[in-house]
Amino acid sequence: MQLILASTSTYRAEQLKRLGIPFAQEDPQVDEDILKQAGLPPAELAKRLALEKALQVQQRFPTALIIGGDQLVSFEGDVLGKPGSNERAVQQLMRLQGTSHELITAIAVLGPAFEEVHCNHTRLTMRALDEAALRRYVEYDEPWNCAGAYKIESRGIALFESIESTDHSAITGIPLMELTSLLRRAGLELP
Length: 191
Description:
Layout: E1 3-6, H1 10-17, E2 24-26, H2 32-36, H3 42-60, E3 65-75, E4 78-80, H4 86-96, E5 100-111, E6 114-126, H5 131-141, E7 160-164, H6 176-185
Parallel strand pairs: 1-2, 1-3
Antiparallel strand pairs: 3-4, 3-5, 5-6, 6-7
Helix pairs in contact: 4-5
């Protein structure tokens, strides 16, 4: 069975390579802004976006097994996505510093006779840092394309006091432990 990652994310592709199974990558071509305006709670929004991405690719590859994913930050009732620029990244980090927030990572796996969606919740507590420290971090890591404006897999780890998660791989885009369970249930043979 053909496996397709419905994402252009290099981070998610690198993670999926860890499983040692061949896969293709396809752009899901989903207008996320429309769904973000629907007013859904953060976890429901992440699941809906992951499912929508998988559904869009499934229309083009109906016999394949499709993986869709989405990630967002929930903080004080707001959904924080990718900041889009280094300046907005600093602004997001200034809001998050010295507090805890939730990183929500959703995955959807769709096949010809299979559909499951999973949501992972990670609680992160950021150190109290001044703007100068956050600017130095942003200059180095350029996390403008990451939810929450940090890259845990790089220097972003130094921003945090604690991380609580049932699957730490979810932090970089795909909860691999849950994904392997979903793929097995969908009929894919894994080690």
